């Protein structure tokens, strides 16, 4: 039982903290022997398709269009495509008012992946940039993303996701924002070592020639697209100066729904990307992939429960002060998480309780997401999580 407890502690620590620390140390050593050179990108302006998949985004679509039109890139090399399959509100009518935006629409709602596959079949520009309909980009985003493609080893570029919390944001917003700050740092380090481990669909640029249609039942299309680039032998770079901004989920219920869907998609992706476990074929990727992604969706949530159960059993069987101390620490952590939950319900903001609450919150979502994946009950059609209103 002690081995179970110690193994569980090791996995939980490594998955959420240890990997980041080890990655940082590895990069410190790497920087001693290598010099990062910035290539000259002057005059490098390949043709770009800016693609937005939107479903019933009538409330926000004008903001997205205005933001897209304000992006800094030559108009004659910048194609804008909005795919609105299945939309039943006034999204199409709004987009139709702009002659320089291509509207692709089919009445049937077959999901975001099907819409992207269809639009990509009609795309012939060198680069395609995917962006979510509910996000706003900084003006330099396109240029910053495109600049990386001057390196022939780069097959895709991930932008940064920023969750904009406001005065009225609840704990779900603060927790999501803190999570993405940490996640963005890990992505930056991953890319410096070799490649980003899974890009967010809010802002992702891809070489069009490397895109291959993905199964239409894929839950995490962005995840599959970016790793398919890795499988073909190319890197996914990271550009923190190209960022997509969005507000947090409108409520805990909406954030939980989103996390459950992501977890179910994570398990589906692990199965479909099983080839990445072949360390002999992917010596530069396998360690990063398992450490950053796979453990968080598989062993870490399981070990989190095993750590508590095994620790209780050991203490009740006279395990000694070391295990008693560990159990007390776990008790304090879960007490803080529960306090954070109660504060969230009553809309009371105390920052120090956000981290334990959001950590437990995410792992509970993984359990439910796994159950949905096993039962095949998670639809690939996106159930849009409501976002907090922007001021």
From TrEMBL:
Keywords from the UniProt entry: Glycosyltransferase, Membrane, Transferase, Transmembrane, Transmembrane helix
Q: Which residues cross the membrane?
A: 6-27, 262-282, 294-316, 323-341, 353-370
Q: Give any Pfam family that matches.
A: Glycos_transf_2
| Entry's Gene Ontology molecular function annotations | glycosyltransferase activity
> Where in this chain does the record put each Glycosyltransferase 2-like domain?
51-188
- Family the UniProt entry places it in: Belongs to the glycosyltransferase 2 family.
Q: What is this protein called?
A: Glycosyltransferase, catalytic subunit of cellulose synthase and poly-beta-1,6-N-acetylglucosamine synthase
Q: Which organism is it from?
A: Chitinophaga jiangningensis
């Amino acid at each position: 039982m002690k081995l179970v407890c110690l193994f569980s502690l090791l996995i939980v620590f490594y998955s959420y903290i240890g990997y980041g620390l080890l990655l940082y140390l590895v990069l410190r050593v790497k920087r001693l022997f290598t010099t990062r050179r910035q290539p000259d990108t002057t005059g490098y302006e390949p043709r770009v398709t800016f693609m937005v998949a939107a479903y019933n985004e009538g409330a926000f679509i004008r903001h997205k269009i205005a933001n897209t039109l304000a992006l800094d890139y030559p108009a004659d090399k910048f194609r804008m495509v909005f795919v609105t399959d299945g939309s039943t509100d006034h999204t199409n009518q709004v987009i139709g008012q702009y002659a320089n935006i291509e509207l692709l629409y089919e009445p049937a709602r077959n999901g975001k992946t099907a819409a992207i596959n269809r639009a990509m079949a009609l795309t012939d520009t060198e680069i395609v940039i995917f962006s979510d309909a509910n996000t706003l980009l900084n003006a330099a985003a396109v240029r910053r993303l495109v600049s990386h493609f001057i390196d022939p080893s780069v097959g895709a570029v991930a932008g940064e996701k920023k969750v904009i919390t406001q005065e009225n944001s609840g704990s779900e917003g603060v927790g999501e924002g803190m999570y993405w700050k940490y996640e963005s740092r890990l992505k930056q380090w991953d890319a410096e070592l070799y490649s980003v481990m899974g890009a967010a669909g809010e802002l992702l640029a891809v070489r069009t020639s490397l895109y291959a249609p993905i199964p239409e039942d894929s839950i995490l299309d962005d995840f599959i697209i970016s790793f398919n680039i890795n499988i073909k032998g190319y890197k996914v770079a990271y550009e923190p100066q190209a960022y997509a901004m969005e507000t947090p989920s409108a409520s805990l219920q909406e954030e939980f729904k989103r996390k459950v869907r992501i977890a179910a998609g994570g398990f589906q992706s692990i199965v479909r990307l099983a080839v990445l476990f072949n360390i002999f074929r992917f010596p530069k990727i396998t360690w990063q992939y398992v450490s950053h992604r796979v453990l968080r969706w598989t062993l870490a949530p399981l070990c989190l429960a095993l750590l508590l159960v095994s620790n209780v059993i050991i203490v009740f069987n006279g395990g000694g002060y070391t295990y008693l101390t560990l159990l007390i620490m776990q008790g304090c952590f879960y007490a803080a998480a529960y306090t954070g939950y109660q504060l969230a319900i009553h809309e009371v903001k105390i920052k120090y309780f956000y981290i334990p609450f959001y950590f437990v919150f995410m792992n509970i979502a993984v359990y439910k997401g796994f159950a949905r994946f096993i039962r095949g009950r998670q639809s690939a059609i996106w159930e849009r999580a409501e976002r907090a209103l922007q001021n």
